[in-house]
Write a structure and sequence with these properties.
Layout lengths: L1 E6 L29 E5 L4 E4 L5 H7 L7 E3 L5 H4 L6 H7 L3 E5 L1 H10 L1 H4 L10 E5 L6 E3 L2 E10 L2 E8 L2 E4 L7 H4 L7 E5 L12 H11 L3 E5 L8 H5 L6 E3 L5 E3 L1
Parallel strand pairs: 3-4, 4-5, 5-6, 10-11, 11-12, 12-13
Antiparallel strand pairs: 1-2, 1-14, 2-3, 7-8, 8-9, 9-10
Length: 254
Amino acid sequence: MKVTFLGTGTSQGVPVIGCDCEVCLSADPRDQRLRPALLLETAGVRVVIDCGPDFRQQMIRARVPGIDAIVITHEHNDHVIGLDDVRPFNFMQKKDMPVYATRAVMKELQNRFAYAFAAERYPGSPMIQLVPIEKSSRFRIADLDFLPVEVLHGKMPVLGFRIGDFAYLTDMKTIAEEELAKLSGVDTLVVNALHHTPHHSHLNLEDALAFIGEIRPRRAFLTHMSHRMGKHQEVSAQLPANVQFAYDGLQLFW
């Protein structure tokens, strides 16, 4: 399996509009973060986790020739609002795009993209096939086996996913013990770390490092970072040996 980080920023992305801080003005491409998304590839399938406002740019930048499905973690716009841009894949692949989400998220998608789900669909609108998933049930997409892991984003349920010995958690603040158990023995963990100060709905850096210490993966990568985290090169030196900041375009291989 190959994993590509399509975006590692927050809902605003980095640089932030109008900001002149040293991170937003940095020439280091690792400090330029699109909204959070991930690409999973095997010999048999390509799956994107989340489809935010930078989806089009992410697909072009990563030269993705086609995708087989999209999996949604939750309904916030930085994770779903790019769904209209599945249209080129619809046209090229001549089929609807399967979108896996909980029923609560499906309802939100049907509201926000009502024109795509109308009885008389607007011509040329995205063709989306909603596939319901639940936190309690595994699901497969071709040769990828997904184990949902529910976390809380403040009070909002959000799904992370374990795929084999790889786990991806975004927009997390807390996790129940029964969900934590699903991460036992994971080799590679990706988890959000917003910045350095406490936040009501996200882990900060201290929280994320403590969580990683509890899970004890062989390696961990931090994502969903704001410009307030600091410059990639400088803050990376403060991390434990088995923890790295992810960055847009980073690829992992198994």
